[in-house]
Amino acid sequence: MFExxxxxxxxxxxxxxxxxxxxxxWDSEGRSYIDAMSSMLCANLGYSESRLIEAAAQQMARLxxxxxxxxxxxxxxxxxxxxxxxxxxxxxxxxFFANSGAEANDSAFKIAWYYHACLGRTGRTKxxxxxNAYHGTTVAAGSATGIEPIHRGFGLPLPSFxxxxxxxxxxxxxxxDEQFTxxxxxxxxxxxxxxxxxxxxxxxxxxxLGAGGIIVPPPGYYGRVQDVLARHDILFIAxxxxxxxxxxxxxxxxxxxxxxxxxxxLAKGLSSAYLPIxxxxxxxxxxxxxxxxxxxxxxxxxxxxYSGHPVAAAVARETLAVLTERNIPQxxxxxxxxLAEGLGEYWNVKGVTDVRGxxxxxxxxxxxxxxxxxxxxxxxxxxxxxxxxxxxxxxVGDSIGFAPPLISTRAExxxxxxxxxxxxxxxxxx
Length: 430
Ligand code: PMP
Prior knowledge:
With 430 residues, this protein is of the alpha/beta class. It has 2 domains: 17-48 and 327-426, Alpha-Beta Complex (Aspartate Aminotransferase, domain 1); 63-326, Type I PLP-dependent aspartate aminotransferase-like (Major domain) (Aspartate Aminotransferase, domain 2, 3-Layer(aba) Sandwich). The protein contains 14 helices and 15 strands. Helix 4 (101-118) packs across helix 10. The protein is globular. The chain starts with 16 loop residues before the first strand and ends in a 5-residue tail after the last helix. Residues 1-10 have low confidence and may be disordered. The structure holds 4'-deoxy-4'-aminopyridoxal-5'-phosphate. Pfam families: Aminotran_3.
């Protein structure tokens, strides 16, 4: 039996994780936790996938590093680009590799700027994103992020980063999905009109907004966004850093939502987080324009020493092999109802205002007033109590997020839900 304990959340000491196995991790005090968040929604194959460990060790021994620069590269990133092209949900020209989600998004913005420059549209510099979006914390990705603490104290966002309202059905103020989508699309069109389409390079959006609170836009929303963008020659970048590689029950949420972005950014699940690697999938259309126009503009002066790091790329290749051979997206589709039904129970208890999500990406929002607490307090309290009960969840304000490793079994999902239910029961509702 698991012994409840008190975590050091209340003091400033970090909670130190020292070991992992399957969907579980252990801390420095020897306590074990079932990880309902896959750490930062990324350890998708859990913490002990021997094939990934073996792939890293073999590549370390064969060629620990060679940079991709100029006309020289290692073989592994090329093979990974081929693997990705094979499963890409868009007509895929090229893949650009980086090391983090933010770098992938910065790179996608620069590819968008460069693409327009290649077409002679040098005035197209602005980037549109959502309020509450999360795209990373570098200067550019941080500017596209729509979460205030990422801007505060840094002079962000940069002026060329524009925002449209978050497609959060909880803010629809009584409108049905279609009316709410009409409103959101009208706001996007107004912004484009006010700024001038010829000043806008790209729109970036998460198919399901993650760090902003696990927000599933109304059905058909992104399809309509895409129609507007296409009319104005604005590129559409799908940020699949969280949703890519099975989390929604498909290899890519892009496919599930019937989208055809010009670029897709990927990180986290690409290597199941075992090593840092990210990617921008760039569609044929963009690659062709660049190939035809780059002589006039000059070389694409962008890249990182570790772009396509061979060891990270080897782990990513093996991750893709495991995802495909074990048909992990299907596993997620099969077991998503366990989470949906388990969390759906919270509609019937006191102090809950919303239950939402898709695949293995879900959230429950609690009402602090019902618990006699201030805003933000019930989320933090439940996350701490959950840890006390042996399950790690993430609080975003008063929402609790669930994004378990994609390998979780039915029994492990039930255990996560039971442990969280015990945490909920431990906090008195008024
Ligand atoms: N995009 C999305 C949708 C993310 O969730 C994140 C990270 N949470 C990022 C980009 C940034 O990734 P990284 O932290 O690797 O820079």
